[in-house]
Amino acid sequence: MKALVLAGGSGTRLRPITHTSAKQLVPVANKPVLFYGLEAIAAAGIREIGIVVGDTHAEIEAAVGDGFALGLQVTYIRQEAPLGLAHAVLIARDYLGDDDFVMYLGDNFIVGGINDIVDRFAQERPAAHIMLTQVGDPQQFGVAELDARGRVVGLEEKPPNPKSDLALVGVYLFTPAIHEAVAELKPSWRGELEITDAIQWLIADDQWVESTVISGYWKDTGNVTDMLEVNRLVLESLDARTDGTVDGASQLIGRVVVEAGAVVERSRIVGPAIIGAGARILDSYIGPFTSIAADCTISGSEIEYSIVLPRSSISGVSRIEASLIGHDVEVTPAPNTPRAHRLVLGDHSKVQISS
Fold this sequence. Notes:
- This protein is an alpha/beta fold.
- It has helices at residues 17-20, 33-43, 57-64, 85-91, 93-96, 115-124, 177-183, 195-204, 224-236, and strands at 2-7, 27-28, 31-32, 48-53, 73-78, 101-105, 108-110, 128-134, 142-146, 152-157, 166-174, 209-213, 218-220, 241-242, 245-246, 251-253, 256-258, 263-265, 268-270, 273-275, 280-282, 285-286, 290-292, 297-299, 302-304, 307-308, 313-315, 320-321, 324-325, 330-331.
- The longest helix is centred in the middle third of the chain and has 13 residues, at 224-236.
- The mean pLDDT is 88.
């Protein structure tokens, strides 16, 4: 079995971060979200991976390389424009050949890995096997309708009147049967080749489409809120360790990771939190669910429930929370300016002004 990892999206919901960075490389607990998917694929025993890349191909190729460090053999497949998930399968046809494959969206995060579903697929070999999860707003997703045996009888992409609350998670398993389906597709109203249409084609052709409803955690890390939530979840699973330098005037509380080369002086860090290699935390408070990446400097500031990317600095800022701060950013206090109230008051007015 091979894997096809989709890492070509532009990440419009994470702008302005993704104006200069690939969304799949935004870190969760100081590790790119893409790497969690690659590690899950490797843990399932799959070694050959095709990564579909777009405009950010150079950055992704630099980060992943040939995959050797992850125990993988990586081939890059260029997608000139984001024309749909099924289009990614179409352009990967030569690479995939006649092998079964798992398709994994590179910005998805799934707790528990994919070992069980890969093993089940290898034993049963339906034409397709999809992962589903219950959601409160199915209108925003591809939605599956199941029969009494759990087999998929219908799929709709972002339906106005969903037939279920089961949304497709970004992991799909296919036999080569999917290639015939993809070849028959026409672009949807969005101008894309939809993978839901391809799976629906298999169903209409009386081919077996199986599903697994997952009970574990899943997130499409497409916006800042979801990134921070996934970061929180991963940090909660960390084991405390101190490989850097923490002075006697500092206090580490709970699950705090201080990576090699990091320096903490006269500061208080309440976990779960991670301080990246080479970072400097001086006279500051780092609150729970915060990831400070490599070579950052936090001085005389407070920050919690946030992600700070490499080489950024925060100095003299009283409070930051629920934030995603990009690479090489400088955050400093605004200059103090005199405050005044300008009033035009009618007769007999009564005004209260907070000084």
